[in-house]
Write a structure and sequence with these properties.
By secondary structure, the protein is of the alpha/beta class. It has 9 helices and 8 strands. The protein has one domain: Rossmann fold. An 8-stranded mixed sheet has the order 2-5-4-3-1-6-7-8, sandwiched between helices.
């Protein structure tokens, strides 16, 4: 039996979302002319808000606009690394670092489960000491180039729980006690599945759900006091 601590990433471990900032970072570093597509990115977000497209399609559109239809790993690697370093400097909640250290000290396997693309989230997770990363995958061509197309499903909502369960089966892990952290009510399926649910800097809907369920709420904007 393996005790687990599973963390959402965007606005849980990080203060702010990372997906669009990652694509803007890539465009600015690799092909600044792609920043001219920002109005189209904004338009795609309006289509999502209007429920014309779903989150997965939104990601694919913005990926293609700002990063391109395909990119080779040799070109992608430095972009992922530089974005991870910028995120570590400026966008990690102090309380997240303390929680990760606590969970590792308790002997838990520490896992990130995020709707963001796994190919860049993994770099952030590894630098923070995570053991594994579950996230949205992209299609790899026969030449290993990364395509602006999701492979499978977007790791969001009920799909996140299904992907966690698939990962457990793939890794032949029999979970012991599972602790789960997130800021958002979209993760309700994983909250309900976990043995310990912790709402981190929750938005209003999750704060209400946590109060109803008796889940603890933690503020990770500040590091906990030394004891």
């Amino acid at each position: 039996m393996t005790d687990l601590a599973i963390y959402d990433m965007d606005r849980t471990v990080t203060r702010h979302a990372t997906y669009t900032p990652f694509l803007l970072h890539c465009a600015a570093k690799r092909a600044p002319w792609r920043l001219l597509a920002v109005p189209l990115v904004a338009a795609s977000m309006l289509l999502y808000v209007a429920k014309v497209i779903d989150r997965g399609r939104l990601k694919e559109i913005n990926h293609r606009l700002l990063l391109g239809r395909v990119i080779h790993p040799e070109a992608l690697g430095p972009l992922v690394e530089s974005f991870a370093q910028a995120t570590l400097r400026n966008n990690i909640r102090p309380g997240a670092r303390a929680a990760i250290a606590r969970d590792k000290a308790e002997g838990r396997r520490v896992v990130m489960a995020t709707a963001s693309y796994r190919f860049y989230a993994r770099g952030i997770a590894e630098a923070l000491g995570f053991d594994d990363t579950i996230g949205t995958d992209t299609i790899l061509g026969i030449d290993e180039r990364v395509h602006a197309k999701i492979d499978g499903q977007n790791c969001y909502g009920p799909e996140k729980l299904r992907m966690i369960e698939a990962w457990l089966k793939r890794e032949t892990i029999k979970p012991g006690k599972v602790r789960f952290y997130s800021d958002h009510a979209s993760d309700a399926p994983v909250f309900e599945w976990a043995d310990e649910a912790v709402a981190v800097n929750p938005h209003a809907r999750l704060a209400r759900l946590a109060a109803e369920r008796g889940w603890p709420i933690e503020d990770w904007n500040h590091a906990p006091p030394m004891v």
